[in-house]
Structure to design on (239 residues):
């Protein structure tokens, strides 16, 4: 059981990392102005690779639907929060509410991702099977 | 034409997630290649679609349809069981992304 928790924690760390890389990727693509600025284009390509690698590591144990939603959610939160920092943008009250919903959903999914013992025995060939209970 | 580009972008985004799930942290070469190629094609098709679509609307459609498709195909192809808890969380996050995109700013 503790081995499972450890591998789950590592997967979630990878998923958060994939989201963070995605934010850098988006900023770099924006800065590359249609891949015409070489430095930002290179940063964009490197973080494109890092993002998908981290996502792939995370999806070893996290369900693909959960992984994708969290990844996209973190990317959207990052873009919204960093917009006012780097560009001349402001967040409205309504947008803060949407940000809150995304973050609450991510936390919810982290908690829902803990597979129960009953679920593991019902589940068919899955990674979770490797776990001794 | 922009709807076609958006549909292609969605299809490749779904392929990205499913391939990344198979790529085992990039140790499986075939699925790693599929992940990277479909990632590049999804980005390209989306950028084409967003030339015509309002960026917020186009991005919201893209993420939400891809997210639902990925979840359903993950259940169908990988046997990843869908529970109410997971479904509610996925809908909350994707709904939040859609709301954020549609409420201006980006």
């Amino acid at each position: 059981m503790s081995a499972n928790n450890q591998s789950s924690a590592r997967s979630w760390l990878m998923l958060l990392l994939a989201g963070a890389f995605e934010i850098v990727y988006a900023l770099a693509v924006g800065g590359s102005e249609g891949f015409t600025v070489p430095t930002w284009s290179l940063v964009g390509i490197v973080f494109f690779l890092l993002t998908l690698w981290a996502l792939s590591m995370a999806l070893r144990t996290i369900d693909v639907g959960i992984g994708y939603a969290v990844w996209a959610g973190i990317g959207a939160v990052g873009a919204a929060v960093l917009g006012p920092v780097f560009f001349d943008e402001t967040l409205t009250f309504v947008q803060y509410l949407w940000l809150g919903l995304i973050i609450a959903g991510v936390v919810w999914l982290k908690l829902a991702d803990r597979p129960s013992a009953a679920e593991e025995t019902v589940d068919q060939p899955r990674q979770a099977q490797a776990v001794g209970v | 034409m922009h709807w076609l580009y958006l549909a292609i972008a969605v299809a490749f985004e779904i392929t990205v997630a499913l391939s990344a799930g198979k790529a085992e942290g990039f140790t499986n070469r075939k699925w790693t290649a599929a992940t990277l190629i479909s990632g590049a094609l999804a980005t390209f098709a989306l950028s084409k679609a967003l030339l015509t679509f309002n960026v917020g609307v186009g991005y919201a459609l893209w993420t939400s349809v891809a997210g639902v498709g990925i979840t359903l195909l993950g259940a169908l192809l990988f046997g990843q069981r869908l529970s109410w808890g997971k479904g509610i969380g996925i809908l909350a996050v994707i709904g939040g992304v859609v709301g954020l995109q549609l409420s201006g700013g980006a």
In short: Chain A has a mean pLDDT of 85. The longest helix of chain A spans residues 2-31.
